[in-house]
Design goal:
With 256 residues, the chain is an alpha/beta fold. Helices cover 31% and strands 21% of the residues. α2 packs across α3. Bound molecules: NADP nicotinamide-adenine-dinucleotide phosphate (NAP). NADP nicotinamide-adenine-dinucleotide phosphate binds next to β2, α2 and α3. Keywords: Cobalamin biosynthesis, Oxidoreductase.
Length: 256
């Protein structure tokens, strides 16, 4: 729903789609904009404006920044949404708009972990070949490969999409956070013998790694994409939100 920005108010564009971004969006007053790709749930209870869908590449984003009087962009997209982060970086440079970014630190292996890197889908298939009951927690990527499942495997795919699965795969439509007990139950019930994961970082989805450690299971970890720098970078949503509230106070004072 569109809310009108008063006069020439300098506005914030928050790029989201993650729990971190939503936590920041909850602190944004009405004149400012929370932007989503449109892949997941669109929150209906925010004070700020919510817009959904792409901008039309870098040029489209530059036009948007100028037309909407955006004075600050905050990139709080998922660590694997590298295209959006690159577009934000390039568009902010072209439009001379400062860019902040929440760059969630990657998970680090702990003693007892057996992590195996994979740079892309082909490497994932190779790494899981010796196993029979993989759990995919990559998002919807695995759904496009359900027809390729070898006869020796049965997949459990957890993602934010309702899907019937097939005779060789069960799709679980579930949104985190996920907790230890629930993960233990899932691993036991589905007989999981390997996990396929993004290295998303953060607390919401890390319990599966602890359960893999407990059970001595390997984790095939999709390599993180490299992301561009930003003018200011934050490790977590809370510090970005606090800095943003300070920035909004300063802007408000300079505009009154
Ligand atoms: P992407 O590949 O970086 O972005 C693809 C295009 O989607 C962008 O170029 C942009 O279109 C549009 N877009 C992305 N985020 C947007 C936003 N916040 N507001 C407006 N438009 C946006 O990212 P992705 O396709 O969203 O996801 C890539 C990976 O990240 C996947 O592996 C996915 O599972 C993971 N991921 C994404 C989200 C999410 O909500 N985006 C959440 C969790 C995980 P234009 O070029 O037209 O502007």
């Amino acid at each position: 729903m569109r809310k009108e920005a008063p006069g020439n108010t300098k506005r914030v564009l928050l790029l989201g789609g993650t729990g971190d971004a939503l936590a920041i969006a909850r602190a944004l007053p009405p004149a400012h904009v929370y932007s989503l790709a449109g892949l997941g749930r669109v929150p209906g209870d925010l004070a700020c404006t919510v817009r959904v869908g792409g901008f039309g590449g870098i040029d489209g984003l530059v036009r948007y920044l100028r037309a909407e009087n955006i004075a600050l962009v905050v990139d709080a997209t998922h660590p694997y949404a590298a295209q959006m982060s690159r577009h934000a970086h390039d568009a902010c440079t072209l439009a001379d708009v400062p860019l902040w970014a929440v760059r969630r630190p990657a998970w680090q292996p702990q003693p007892g972990d057996d992590w195996r890197d994979a740079a892309g889908w082909r490497e994932i298939v190779d790494r899981i070949a010796p196993f029979h009951r993989p759990l995919f927690t990559l998002g919807r990527e695995a759904l496009g490969h359900l027809h390729e499942i070898p006869a020796s495997q049965y997949w459990t795919v957890r993602c934010l999409e309702a899907h019937a699965g097939n005779e060789r795969a069960k799709v679980i439509d579930a949104r985190g956070p996920f907790h230890l007990e629930g993960e233990r139950a899932l691993f036991g019930a589905a007989g999981i013998d390997v996990i396929v994961s993004k290295n998303s970082g953060g607390r919401a989805t890390e319990a599966k790694l602890a359960v893999a450690r407990e059970r001595g299971l390997p984790v095939v970890m999709l390599t993180r994409p490299s992301l561009p720098d930003a003018d200011t970078m934050f490790d977590d949503a809370a510090s970005a939100r606090d800095a943003l509230l300070n920035w909004l106070d300063r802007i408000h004072l300079s505009e009154t």
